[in-house]
Design a protein that fits this description.
The chain is α/β, with parallel strands linked by helices. It contains eleven helices and seven strands.
């Protein structure tokens, strides 16, 4: 499944009340939102219809979040759903996530794009290929290592996979306090070392299985009723069940590099981008 199709269907399943996106570029992924939204990109050039009530921010994510007060981007409402698709470098993606978590609730969901590079060339920090993920793939291990309380699900979307993060905790400062050490541990000059496990998308769950999960209905029904501690604990159980079910249906492996582009052009022709 192409990632824009997955995002559009996820919006329908989760019904977020607020949505924030880093790296809006031409607006294709922002265009699937139907709730109050904020799109951040220092050099966006929108070429698609945006129907949701949206604030377009022509700044870097760091600059934008440095300017916010304690009420955050949605006047005190948490960020229900965030899509992190800005600068394709590990430290930028991690900072974007840290900024999102500050204004999240236990029920919030953050999504990283470009988590599954097809080869080491695509994973280079200095872009040398048409399809470029950078070293964002390292975020999965960094969060697993420093924040095991966060539940992660890798999704086998085209062309470069997604990583969903659940059970966020705005009171947890483990990532920000260790940020410099984390960056020193994970950022390396090119060429990047990309394991065969990463290239094979080991553990990735098929997108249709993710969308069919009862987790989304459970989140909608409980996000305003459960307390943070109980909500996170039960949500981790929900995510574990999803991962276990996905493990019974192994990933189909990496998507063709050009499949996403063909699908994207098809979406544009149909007016669905």
């Amino acid at each position: 499944m192409f990632y824009l199709d997955f995002l559009a269907r996820l919006h329908m399943r989760l019904e977020p009340r607020t949505y924030l996106e880093f790296g809006i570029r031409n607006g294709w992924s922002l265009g699937v939102a139907r709730c109050r939204s904020v799109g951040i990109d220092p050099s966006f050039a929108i070429d698609t219809e945006i129907t949701a009530p949206t604030s377009l921010i022509r700044r870097t994510g760091d600059d934008y979040f440095a300017s916010l007060d304690e009420r955050g981007p949605f006047d005190g409402q948490p960020i229900d759903l965030a899509f992190i698709d800005g600068m394709h470098l590990f430290e930028f993606a991690l900072r974007d996530f840290m900024n999102v978590e500050r204004y999240a609730a236990w029920s919030s969901v953050a999504i990283f794009d470009d988590i599954c590079p097809p080869n080491a060339m695509a994973a280079a920090r200095d872009r040398v290929s048409m399809l470029w993920t950078g070293d964002v793939f390292k975020v999965e291990n960094a969060i697993t290592d420093r924040r095991p309380d966060i539940a992660l699900v890798k999704v086998n979307t085209q062309p470069t996979g997604l990583l969903l993060a659940f059970a966020l905790d705005p009171t947890n400062r483990a990532l920000s306090e260790a940020y410099d050490d984390i960056v020193a541990s994970y950022v390396r000059p090119d060429p990047q070392e990309v394991s065969q496990e990463i290239l094979d998308r080991a553990g990735a769950v098929e997108p249709r299985a993710v969308l069919r999960s009862p987790l989304w209905e459970w989140l909608r029904e409980n996000r305003d009723t459960l307390g943070a501690d109980d909500g996170r604990a039960q949500l981790r159980d929900q995510v574990a069940a999803l991962r276990a079910k996905g493990a019974a249906n192994p990933s189909a492996g990496a998507a063709p590099a050009d499949g996403g582009q063909r699908r994207k052009l098809s979406l544009r022709r149909q007016g669905r981008d």
